[in-house]
Amino acid sequence: MNNFLFLGGDMRSVYAAKRLSEHYDCFLYGFTGELQAVPADIPVLREITKFKSLVLPLPSSRDGIHINAPFHKEQIPISIIPQAVEASGIVYCGKVFIEIKKICEQNNLELVDYFEREELIIKNAVPTSEGCIEIIMREQGSTIFGSQVLLTGFGRVSKVVAKHLTALGAEVTVTARKYSDLAWAEIEGCRTVHLSKLDDMLGKFDIVVNSVPAPLFSLERVKKLKAGCLLVDLASKCCVEDIEAAEKEGVNVIHALSLPGKVAPQTAGYIVADTIMNILEESANA
User: Fold this and answer.
1) What is the pLDDT of residue 36?
2) Chunked in runs of 10, what are the mean pLDDT values of the chain (286 residues)?
3) 224-231, long-range: CB < 8 A, 24+ apart
4) How far apart are CA 93 and CA 78, in angstroms?
5) CA 135/CA 161 separation, integer angstroms
6) At CA 118, angle to CA 112 and CA 121, rounded to 5?
7) Distance separating alpha carbons of residues 240 and 78, to the nearest angstrom
8) What is the C-alpha to C-alpha distance for residues 47 and 29, in angstroms, rounded to an integer?
């Protein structure tokens, strides 16, 4: 029977192990520090042993050298991976680092990036959007209702954010490079402006929500934003070229990373487990 070791991670890993333990034997390693209660039926190992499957967190690493393990007292090097997986075993990874890929190739381990799965990305958009709204409600001195909001990009996350903000009474404008994205935004009831024509409108927005991992906001563009504007960046790479300079201009910039794990770790963990179950089912039916 297949078994799983969840190596490092935050509470998402704990809840993913709990969910997957309904079908398989699951164990945790890398949780010696302070954290919320671990389910009593999920053993926490003190020593590494080999398992048929290894689940790394999301993200798997932050530096390409160590496993992302915020609740472990000591750093866990990625070189420990072969000690945790049986020969020809599977490593499930959230955001693959090239160093982890090399280790798996050198040790004949199959590497699967569950973060590339479409169903995970789509489902993660919901807690990301709710986390974004939480930030807006905390940081903005006025209601979302009636606020002028600019969404940059109209991918999976922005589609959900637009739906939630519109439902709360915000006036949402979407900007993007692709006319197809703008067409979808119009269908969803949003106003639209092509990115090439955005600059002349920047001064009208109370809130900007970015989902594009690119430096869209130069200092010149930041200066055109309304004083007191809140800019919530949901992308992995900040869209503001110079955050300190932006804040001096009166723009409140918040780079909100890994929101699903912060605002809804149980839901986010269950999404990871369900995605792994989908991968297993596809493999069995192949």
Assistant:
1) 58
2) 92 94 95 66 89 95 93 94 94 92 96 96 96 97 96 96 97 97 97 96 97 95 95 95 94 94 94 97 88
3) 224/199, 225/249, 225/251, 226/202, 227/251, 228/252, 229/205, 230/136, 230/139, 230/140, 230/206, 230/254, 231/207
4) 12
5) 12
6) 95
7) 32
8) 8
Q: Which helix (H) or strand (E) holds 76?
A: strand 76-77
Provide the pLDDT for residue 284. 87
Q: What residue spans in the chain does CATH classification 3.40.50.720 cover?
A: 3-116+265-285, 121-255
DSSP labels, 203-230: GG-SEEEE--SS--B-HHHHTTSPTT-E
Instruction: Give the H or E element holding residue 88.
Output: strand 85-93
**Cis status, amide bond into 215, omega within 30 of 0:** no
For residue 41 the two structure tokens come to: 């039926």
Question: What CATH number belongs to 3-116+265-285?
Answer: 3.40.50.720
Name the nearest CA neighbour of 83 among 105, 50, 110, 54.
Answer: 50
**Fold (CATH) for 121-255:** Rossmann fold (3.40.50)
- Residues counted in the chain: 286
